[in-house]
Amino acid sequence: MLQQDTSVDFSGYDEEQVRLMEEMCILVDENDKAIGPASKKTCHLMENINTGMLHRAFSVFLFNSRNELLLQQRASEKITFPDCYTNTCCSHPLYVPEELDEAEQMGVKRAAQRKLEHELGIKPEQVPLDKFRYLTRIHYVSPSDGQWGEHEIDYILFIKADVDLDVNENEVGSVKYVSKEEMMEIIETAEETGTKLTPWFKLIDTNFLYKWWDQLDDLSACVDTETIHRLL
Predict the structure, then answer these.
(1) Is 90 one of the annotated active-site residues of the chain?
(2) Is 187 contained in some domain?
(3) Active-site residue (options: 77, 99, 119, 152)
(4) What are 141-182's pLDDT values in tens digits?
(5) Out of the domains of life, which is the source (predicted)?
(6) 24: exposed, middle or buried (Cβ count in 10 Å: 0-12, 13-18, 19+)
(7) Predicted confidence (pLDDT) per residue in 117-132, tens digit
(8) Given 25, 84, 89, 90, the catalytic residue
(9) What is the spatial distance between Cα 188 and Cα 230, in angstroms, rounded to a whole number?
Protein backbone atom coordinates (compact mmCIF):
# COMPACT_ATOMS: atom_id res chain seq x y z
CA MET A 1 0.00 0.00 0.00
CA LEU A 2 1.48 3.33 -1.02
CA GLN A 3 1.45 6.17 1.44
CA GLN A 4 -0.60 9.13 0.23
CA ASP A 5 0.30 12.41 1.93
CA THR A 6 -2.06 14.87 0.32
CA SER A 7 -1.55 18.53 1.13
CA VAL A 8 -4.11 19.65 3.72
CA ASP A 9 -5.20 23.15 4.63
CA PHE A 10 -4.81 23.28 8.42
CA SER A 11 -5.88 26.89 8.78
CA GLY A 12 -8.28 27.23 11.69
CA TYR A 13 -6.97 24.14 13.49
CA ASP A 14 -5.06 24.19 16.78
CA GLU A 15 -1.29 24.55 16.28
CA GLU A 16 -0.32 21.79 18.72
CA GLN A 17 -2.84 19.35 17.27
CA VAL A 18 -1.52 20.09 13.79
CA ARG A 19 2.02 19.37 15.01
CA LEU A 20 0.92 16.00 16.38
CA MET A 21 -0.48 15.10 12.96
CA GLU A 22 3.12 14.59 11.82
CA GLU A 23 3.72 11.70 14.23
CA MET A 24 4.34 8.42 12.39
CA CYS A 25 1.72 5.72 12.97
CA ILE A 26 1.99 2.01 12.13
CA LEU A 27 0.24 0.91 8.94
CA VAL A 28 -1.05 -2.67 9.13
CA ASP A 29 -2.84 -5.13 6.89
CA GLU A 30 -6.19 -6.69 7.84
CA ASN A 31 -4.39 -9.33 9.91
CA ASP A 32 -2.55 -6.63 11.91
CA LYS A 33 0.82 -7.24 10.26
CA ALA A 34 2.91 -4.07 10.32
CA ILE A 35 3.66 -2.96 6.76
CA GLY A 36 5.23 0.46 7.19
CA PRO A 37 4.88 3.99 8.57
CA ALA A 38 2.50 6.80 7.69
CA SER A 39 1.87 10.14 9.32
CA LYS A 40 -1.12 10.54 11.62
CA LYS A 41 -2.43 13.04 9.07
CA THR A 42 -2.19 10.53 6.23
CA CYS A 43 -3.84 7.76 8.27
CA HIS A 44 -6.83 9.89 9.21
CA LEU A 45 -7.73 11.42 5.85
CA MET A 46 -10.95 9.87 4.54
CA GLU A 47 -9.57 9.85 0.99
CA ASN A 48 -6.92 7.37 2.20
CA ILE A 49 -9.26 5.44 4.50
CA ASN A 50 -11.58 4.94 1.53
CA THR A 51 -8.76 3.12 -0.29
CA GLY A 52 -8.38 0.70 2.65
CA MET A 53 -5.52 2.35 4.55
CA LEU A 54 -5.51 0.84 8.05
CA HIS A 55 -3.41 1.61 11.14
CA ARG A 56 -2.80 0.25 14.64
CA ALA A 57 -4.34 1.89 17.72
CA PHE A 58 -5.12 1.23 21.36
CA SER A 59 -7.91 2.03 23.82
CA VAL A 60 -7.19 2.12 27.56
CA PHE A 61 -9.92 1.55 30.14
CA LEU A 62 -8.61 2.62 33.55
CA PHE A 63 -10.59 1.69 36.66
CA ASN A 64 -9.99 2.86 40.21
CA SER A 65 -10.13 0.66 43.32
CA ARG A 66 -13.92 1.23 43.49
CA ASN A 67 -14.25 -0.31 40.00
CA GLU A 68 -15.22 3.06 38.51
CA LEU A 69 -14.13 3.80 34.93
CA LEU A 70 -12.29 7.02 34.15
CA LEU A 71 -13.93 8.74 31.18
CA GLN A 72 -12.50 11.65 29.26
CA GLN A 73 -14.14 14.21 27.02
CA ARG A 74 -11.90 14.98 24.09
CA ALA A 75 -10.84 18.62 23.87
CA SER A 76 -12.48 21.03 21.44
CA GLU A 77 -9.02 21.47 19.86
CA LYS A 78 -8.91 17.85 18.66
CA ILE A 79 -9.01 17.47 14.88
CA THR A 80 -10.96 14.20 14.95
CA PHE A 81 -14.03 13.68 17.15
CA PRO A 82 -13.70 16.90 19.19
CA ASP A 83 -15.80 17.21 22.37
CA CYS A 84 -16.77 13.53 22.29
CA TYR A 85 -16.79 11.42 25.45
CA THR A 86 -14.73 8.28 25.33
CA ASN A 87 -12.80 5.77 27.41
CA THR A 88 -9.79 6.82 29.47
CA CYS A 89 -7.24 7.16 26.68
CA CYS A 90 -7.30 6.38 22.95
CA SER A 91 -4.32 6.84 20.65
CA HIS A 92 -1.71 5.10 18.47
CA PRO A 93 1.61 3.36 18.94
CA LEU A 94 4.26 5.10 16.88
CA TYR A 95 6.56 3.67 14.22
CA VAL A 96 9.55 3.48 16.57
CA PRO A 97 11.29 0.28 17.76
CA GLU A 98 9.97 0.36 21.32
CA GLU A 99 6.34 0.73 20.16
CA LEU A 100 6.62 -1.71 17.26
CA ASP A 101 7.50 -4.46 19.75
CA GLU A 102 4.77 -7.11 19.44
CA ALA A 103 6.04 -9.49 22.15
CA GLU A 104 3.43 -9.55 24.94
CA GLN A 105 1.91 -6.48 23.22
CA MET A 106 4.69 -4.42 24.78
CA GLY A 107 4.65 -1.83 21.99
CA VAL A 108 1.05 -0.81 22.54
CA LYS A 109 1.50 -0.96 26.32
CA ARG A 110 4.43 1.45 26.11
CA ALA A 111 2.39 3.72 23.87
CA ALA A 112 -0.51 3.58 26.35
CA GLN A 113 1.76 4.51 29.24
CA ARG A 114 3.22 7.40 27.20
CA LYS A 115 -0.18 8.80 26.22
CA LEU A 116 -1.70 8.45 29.70
CA GLU A 117 1.03 10.78 30.87
CA HIS A 118 0.70 13.13 27.89
CA GLU A 119 -3.09 13.48 28.04
CA LEU A 120 -3.89 12.99 31.72
CA GLY A 121 -0.60 13.57 33.54
CA ILE A 122 -0.59 10.02 34.95
CA LYS A 123 2.97 9.11 35.93
CA PRO A 124 4.34 5.86 34.45
CA GLU A 125 5.07 4.43 37.90
CA GLN A 126 1.32 4.59 38.66
CA VAL A 127 0.53 2.51 35.56
CA PRO A 128 3.42 0.01 35.24
CA LEU A 129 3.56 -1.95 32.02
CA ASP A 130 2.99 -5.29 33.72
CA LYS A 131 -0.33 -4.07 35.11
CA PHE A 132 -1.92 -3.52 31.68
CA ARG A 133 -4.18 -6.39 30.65
CA TYR A 134 -4.55 -6.87 26.91
CA LEU A 135 -8.00 -8.32 26.18
CA THR A 136 -8.55 -8.36 22.41
CA ARG A 137 -8.56 -6.31 19.19
CA ILE A 138 -11.35 -4.68 17.22
CA HIS A 139 -11.31 -3.58 13.58
CA TYR A 140 -13.62 -0.69 12.80
CA VAL A 141 -14.00 2.28 10.47
CA SER A 142 -15.79 5.57 11.12
CA PRO A 143 -15.81 9.06 9.57
CA SER A 144 -15.38 12.05 11.88
CA ASP A 145 -16.46 14.56 9.24
CA GLY A 146 -16.11 14.80 5.47
CA GLN A 147 -12.32 15.04 5.59
CA TRP A 148 -11.17 13.05 8.64
CA GLY A 149 -11.95 9.66 10.14
CA GLU A 150 -10.62 6.46 11.71
CA HIS A 151 -9.83 3.03 10.29
CA GLU A 152 -8.05 1.06 12.98
CA ILE A 153 -7.15 -2.24 14.50
CA ASP A 154 -7.62 -1.22 18.10
CA TYR A 155 -5.97 -3.04 21.02
CA ILE A 156 -8.16 -3.03 24.13
CA LEU A 157 -6.16 -2.56 27.35
CA PHE A 158 -7.62 -2.69 30.88
CA ILE A 159 -5.80 -1.47 33.97
CA LYS A 160 -6.89 -1.04 37.57
CA ALA A 161 -5.04 1.71 39.44
CA ASP A 162 -5.63 4.70 41.67
CA VAL A 163 -3.87 7.55 39.91
CA ASP A 164 -3.18 11.27 40.20
CA LEU A 165 -4.42 13.41 37.31
CA ASP A 166 -2.90 16.54 35.79
CA VAL A 167 -5.03 17.02 32.70
CA ASN A 168 -3.54 18.42 29.47
CA GLU A 169 -6.31 20.82 28.43
CA ASN A 170 -5.16 20.79 24.81
CA GLU A 171 -6.06 17.08 24.73
CA VAL A 172 -8.84 16.64 27.28
CA GLY A 173 -11.86 18.84 27.93
CA SER A 174 -13.04 17.10 31.11
CA VAL A 175 -12.76 13.84 33.06
CA LYS A 176 -14.97 11.91 35.43
CA TYR A 177 -15.19 8.50 37.08
CA VAL A 178 -18.40 6.54 36.54
CA SER A 179 -19.88 3.34 37.92
CA LYS A 180 -21.21 0.68 35.56
CA GLU A 181 -24.76 1.86 36.24
CA GLU A 182 -23.83 5.49 35.56
CA MET A 183 -22.14 4.44 32.32
CA MET A 184 -25.26 2.62 31.20
CA GLU A 185 -27.36 5.70 31.91
CA ILE A 186 -24.99 7.94 29.94
CA ILE A 187 -25.30 5.62 26.94
CA GLU A 188 -29.08 5.24 27.23
CA THR A 189 -29.70 9.00 27.49
CA ALA A 190 -26.98 10.21 25.10
CA GLU A 191 -29.39 11.20 22.34
CA GLU A 192 -31.73 12.96 24.75
CA THR A 193 -28.91 14.84 26.52
CA GLY A 194 -26.92 15.60 23.38
CA THR A 195 -23.89 13.71 24.71
CA LYS A 196 -21.49 12.89 21.87
CA LEU A 197 -19.57 9.60 22.09
CA THR A 198 -16.67 8.35 20.00
CA PRO A 199 -17.67 5.54 17.62
CA TRP A 200 -15.12 3.05 18.92
CA PHE A 201 -16.30 3.61 22.50
CA LYS A 202 -19.90 2.97 21.46
CA LEU A 203 -18.86 -0.25 19.68
CA ILE A 204 -16.93 -1.50 22.71
CA ASP A 205 -19.78 -0.52 25.03
CA THR A 206 -22.35 -2.35 22.91
CA ASN A 207 -20.37 -5.52 22.31
CA PHE A 208 -18.06 -6.09 25.27
CA LEU A 209 -17.75 -3.54 28.05
CA TYR A 210 -20.22 -4.67 30.69
CA LYS A 211 -19.32 -8.36 30.68
CA TRP A 212 -15.67 -7.32 31.07
CA TRP A 213 -16.58 -4.84 33.81
CA ASP A 214 -18.29 -7.61 35.76
CA GLN A 215 -15.03 -9.60 35.79
CA LEU A 216 -12.52 -6.87 36.66
CA ASP A 217 -11.02 -8.87 39.50
CA ASP A 218 -10.29 -11.83 37.22
CA LEU A 219 -10.24 -11.02 33.52
CA SER A 220 -8.80 -14.38 32.45
CA ALA A 221 -12.03 -15.50 30.79
CA CYS A 222 -12.19 -12.22 28.81
CA VAL A 223 -8.79 -12.53 27.13
CA ASP A 224 -8.85 -13.33 23.41
CA THR A 225 -5.45 -12.56 21.95
CA GLU A 226 -6.02 -14.28 18.61
CA THR A 227 -9.30 -12.80 17.35
CA ILE A 228 -9.66 -9.48 15.54
CA HIS A 229 -13.32 -8.61 15.96
CA ARG A 230 -14.58 -7.07 12.69
CA LEU A 231 -17.07 -4.42 13.75
CA LEU A 232 -17.47 -2.86 10.33
Answers:
(1) yes
(2) yes
(3) 152
(4) 999 888 999 999 999 999 999 999 999 999 999 999 999 999
(5) Eukaryota
(6) middle
(7) 999 999 999 999 999 9
(8) 90
(9) 24
